[in-house]
Amino acid sequence: VAASPVSRRATPTGSRGRGRDSREGVTQRRATAKATASTGRLMTKIQRHAIDKCYRLRHGSSIDAELEDELSKAELDRARDLMAGDQLAADAAAIRAAIEGAGTDEEEIYRALRNKTAEQRSQLEAIYLSRYKISLHDDLKSDLSGLERERAEALRAGDVGKADAIGLEHA
Question: What pTM was computed for the model?
């Protein structure tokens, strides 16, 4: 999977971390970090380091410290997994975040389970159990019911056709 571009330059032209160009560079990198977290696109270690450094210069704290302060455990896991380029772990965290708290984001659960190979589904289940100390099956069973649970279980089993048929029936 290709990395998303942040910038072709290590630092903004004509700046050494100060001035208007630097602020624009930080703003661009901050927006890129947010886009990466929301789209799941991978960034290189060099890009991540540049974003971290610019963020610390601009805000006086690390991105990780800010994320720890603002996000739930599962949301934090997902953000870190996306920044590390681990999509399967990020999907496991997205499912947990969709289940935690008030209400359930069924569409996020379906998205995270969709179009996985048998090996990916197995790895996702192992990550989930290791991190959250409950099986994905048991967590889905305790949080979903009826057609929503059937659809999630179909995707968990890799049966996208059945899940889509259930989705049409539920609509």
Answer: 0.69
Angle at Cα 142 formed by Cα 140 and Cα 144, nearest 5°? Answer: 60
Q: Which of 167, 129, 164, 121 is nearest to 146 (CA)?
A: 167
Q: 33 to each of 55, 83, 86, 96, 105, how far by Cα in Å? A: 10, 8, 15, 22, 23
DSSP state of 3: B
Measured distance CA(75)–CA(41) in Å, rounded: 16
Are the C-beta atoms of 15 and 22 separated by less than 8 Å? yes
Handedness of CA 94, 98, 99, 105 (dihedral sign): negative
pLDDT (tens digit per residue) in 129-159:
999 999 999 999 999 999 999 999 999 999 9
